[in-house]
Write a structure and sequence with these properties.
Blueprint (H helix, E strand, L loop, with lengths): L6 E2 L3 E4 L5 H10 L16 H14 L6 E7 L2 E12 L4 E8 L8 H16 L4 E7 L3 H9 L3 E12 L2 E11 L2
Parallel strand pairs: 5-6
Antiparallel strand pairs: 1-2, 2-3, 3-4, 4-5, 6-8, 7-8
């Protein structure tokens, strides 16, 4: 297992976090309510929170089961992608992605997801990669399907975020 090594797609560079990413993460992801609308999770809510998150990510790179990347397009931060909660008994891991709003609709999410899904399964030997999203998050659903994930099930009213309740859609990717 190599963990989060640099990955490159046709347009994107997926690289390890650097401390100078904190400001952009706060401005592009943390300060935009649309970025955490469906999850309620916002590790970049303040500049200091973003610095603490980046520091924690950087400290985790010694762990060969840590998979966290900053997504760059033309040298600028366009989002993040990470896989977490590896379950050795199931040989499964969960993935999550955020693309900054100015880059929505450009196909970055499925491009980055596909790259990471293939890396995790083909290179790291992880059998399955799972993800979930709210039923109203059409962009995430589309990105996961385009990246090759399959919808496995839905839990009605299974997600509470930002004072709302959503149906929670689950997806899975397996190699081969």
């Amino acid at each position: 297992m190599e963990g989060a090594k640099e990955l490159v797609t046709e347009r994107l560079r997926l690289r390890r976090y650097r401390m100078e990413d904190a400001e952009a993460l706060h401005e592009k992801l943390g300060a935009d309510p649309q970025m955490y609308k469906y999850s309620g999770w916002n590790p970049y809510a303040s500049y200091e929170a973003a610095r603490e998150s980046v520091r924690a990510f950087m400290d985790s790179y010694d762990d060969n089961r840590f998979y966290g990347w900053a997504i760059e397009y033309n040298g600028e931060l366009a989002g993040t992608v990470g896989a977490y909660d590896y379950d050795p008994k199931k040989n499964s891991i969960e993935i999550g992605i955020s693309i900054e709003r100015a880059s929505w609709g450009r196909g970055f999410a499925p491009e980055a997801l596909k790259c990471v899904l293939e890396y995790l399964t083909a290179h790291e030997g992880i059998g399955s990669v799972t993800a979930w999203c709210a039923n109203e998050n059409a962009g995430s659903i589309k990105a996961m399907l385009k990246a090759g994930m399959k919808e496995t099930h839905v839990i009605k009213n299974g997600l509470k975020a930002e004072g709302r309740v959503y149906d929670r859609h689950f997806f899975c990717y397996t190699a081969g």
